[in-house]
Amino acid sequence: MPITLFALMLGVFCLGTAEIIISGLLPFVASDLSVSLPDAGLLVTGYALGVTIIGPFVTLLTTRVPRKTLVLGLMVPFIIGNIWAVFASDYQMLMAARILTSISHGTFVAVAFSLAVTLSPPNKQGSAMAKIALGFNLANALGGPLGTFIGQNLGWRATFIAIVVIAVISVALIALFMPAKLPEAEQSKPGAMRREVKALTNPTLVFAIITTVLAQGAVFTASTYIVPLLMDVSHFGPSAVSALLVVFGIGAIMGNFAGGRLADKHVMRGVTTVLGSLVIVLVVFWMTSIVPVLSAITLFLFGAIGFSIIPSLQARIQSLAVAAPTLALSVNVSAFNLGNGLGAWMGGTVLDLGFGIRAVPLAAAALAATSLVITLFAWHFSRQKMTQALES
């Protein structure tokens, strides 16, 4: 992997770890701050809403900023937000810290994906995006389990200290190894902001963004409450859960590269294959969650399938907004995070309504099925438009 992509991937790893770590620390944060489990889960939603609402505006306002300066600058509020989380004395302060941390997320990830595409040949763009998305999957395979282990043994605040240390290392690598001049593509040209906004009026692109929200919502409905599910339904102990989160993360890494290869071959077939498989594995997870061995196997499959959607869906956005991809990618990153928040809320609602933790994967399957239906409709719609254009 080129050193520039590695530096960006490490930055994405930091962002991904900070985003998901609350899921692994959920019982400990809830107990320490004297809030309910669903309220603690809203810390995921708060981060997601920060990315969703603020992220696209940050992208628009920084279209002319050199990419290296931008990615370094974006890490400043991220680091400050995580330091704030370390010293948060109550739930409200921690929520504010999470929101501050989130404002860098969308633009940083969008620029990382955009540069990966710019630096790769057309038939390898899905694989290049998979290299950036690897940061998210390593966050699940290493960041999440290690953060949970640190939180269990040293307190949840120590986990955020570790995130700050890794973020500083990533900043140093970017500063040292990323070239000062990078391909600026459309961002450096006059009228870039207008083109970026206009790209979002494409109906097929809108459908793709909605698909992202629902698909990621399905993944996070299940993954946000994965620790309580494994402990309360599958009856694994805390140490076993930490090991299983590593298994989950390994599945996510394998799925990430599989998703990139599917996108290289045919973007839409890759997306529909992943979504169809996601529906199935979530239903199976509901069935197997009461049997520990089968639950562990299904957890691995859920990680592989659930996290193969990132390169597939990002490659789809890239193919629909070739002329002005950065805002579209940023909005899609916001869509992923809106899906994260939707998933955390959906899982919490299932618990509040009294259905129990075991019902959470079924709610996730319903979201995934809805996403699949919308994707198939959008594919049919775009093919119909293409046929009409050829006939005329």
Keyphrases for this structure?
single chain, 392 residues, mainly alpha, Growth Hormone, Chain: A, 83% helix
What does this structure look like?
This protein is an all-alpha fold and 392 residues long. It has a single domain, classed as MFS general substrate transporter like domains (Growth Hormone, Chain: A), CATH 1.20.1250.20. The protein is 83% helix and 0% strand. It contains 16 helices and no strands. The chain has helices at 3-32, 37-61, 67-86, 91-102, 105-118, 125-154, 156-177, 192-199, 203-224, 226-232, 238-265, 267-288, 292-306, 309-320, 325-352, 360-391. The longest helix has 32 residues, at 360-391. The mean pLDDT is 83.
Task: Give the helices and strands, then pairings.
Blueprint: H1 3-32, H2 37-61, H3 67-86, H4 91-102, H5 105-118, H6 125-154, H7 156-177, H8 192-199, H9 203-224, H10 226-232, H11 238-265, H12 267-288, H13 292-306, H14 309-320, H15 325-352, H16 360-391
Outline of the structure:
The protein has 392 residues and is mainly alpha-helical.
